Amino acid sequence: MSTVVLLAVTGLGLGALYFLVASGLSLIFGLMDVLNFAHGALLSVGAYATWWAADGHLPGAGSGGPGFVLAVCFGTAVGTVAAMVLELALIRPLYDRPREQVLATVGVGLAVPALLSAIWGPDARPFPGPAALSGTFGLLGAHIPVNRLVLIGAAAAVLVALRLFLGGTRHGLVVRAGVEDRAMVTALGIDVRRAFTLVFAIGGAAAALGGALGGLYYGSVDPGQGTSLLIFAFVVVVMGGMGSVAGAALAAVGVGLVQQFANYYTASGLGDLAVVVLLAALLLLKPRGITGRLA
């Protein structure tokens, strides 16, 4: 029983990490029709910025208590700014050229890990997390890592915030209207481009937060971390339904649980294969994914 509880909670933690990455990816694609292959690079930027700050290079930041919160906020802010720069400098001129858009984001996705590797080396760096988050707590006989609860809580907060943004704010409604008929919204005097930049910033913030908290999950950061997580984020987005944030949340939970249980009860590494089989089976039954609709 304790093993099942441990696998379930750690699977939910892994699913939460996948959702933090996939939510921004799904939001950007669903609202802007941009397939952002540089999304993993934003995660890596957030992870390294958090590691740099928590390692004592940012005044007031550190690996314990409020200092770590400041480091996470710093990493998320850096990822947000990076996403805005990416949209303004690279994506915006290519909105009407999707082929070049994909090639450009792929290039950024390859260049950023190489740059991080050149600056800090290709080896993984230990992540200086708070001691309070490195322990465990008891649940039904299982010893659950505390940091899994942090990931689950962060993912739940992001899900609620995105749902409120899309359905309950003026900016969210403007973005949705701009996707349907950009010319009409522009004729009403609304600058759709600013709303699209905001969407990219929110997506980048979610990815950077995933990178910051992913350091807690893995205990280290490395240049290729964003690229490996991006693969599963795409799986989650496709399974959830392209553009559906709620579908991405459900799919992330399923992927995390399947991966954890399959890795434990079968040979190590077969969890990835189990996820691919799950993806294929779902698409055969529901080609549009779990929801197949926006948000």
Count the helices. How many? 11
Low-confidence stretches: none
The proportion of strand residues reads under 5%
Head-to-tail CA distance between termini: 35 Å
CATH class: Mainly Alpha
Considering DSSP H and I runs of 4 or more, what fraction of the residues is helical?
over 70%
Shape: globular
- How are helices and strands ordered from N to C? HHHHEEEHHHHEHHH
From the 3D coordinates, which CATH architecture would you assign?
Orthogonal Bundle
Strand count, sense and barrel status of the largest sheet are:
2 strands, antiparallel
SS content category: mainly alpha
Number of domains: 1
- Order of strands, widest sheet: 1-4
Q: What's the CATH topology label?
A: ABC transporter involved in vitamin B12 uptake, BtuC
Overall number of strands: 4
Mean of residue pLDDT? 83
Please describe what this structure looks like.
- It is found in: Cell membrane.
- Belongs to the binding-protein-dependent transport system permease family. LivHM subfamily.
- One of its GO terms (molecular function) is transmembrane transporter activity.
- One of its GO terms (cellular component) is plasma membrane.
- InterPro entries: ABC_transp_permease (IPR001851), BCAA_transport_permease (IPR052157).
- Helix 1 packs antiparallel against helix 10.
- The strands form two sheets. The protein has a two-stranded antiparallel sheet with strand order 1-4.
- The chain has eleven helices and four strands, in the order H-H-H-H-E-E-E-H-H-H-H-E-H-H-H.
- The mean pLDDT is 83.
- The protein has one domain: ABC transporter involved in vitamin B12 uptake, BtuC (Orthogonal Bundle), CATH 1.10.3470.
- Strand 2 and strand 3 form a beta hairpin.
- 47% of the residues are buried.
- By secondary structure, it is mainly α.
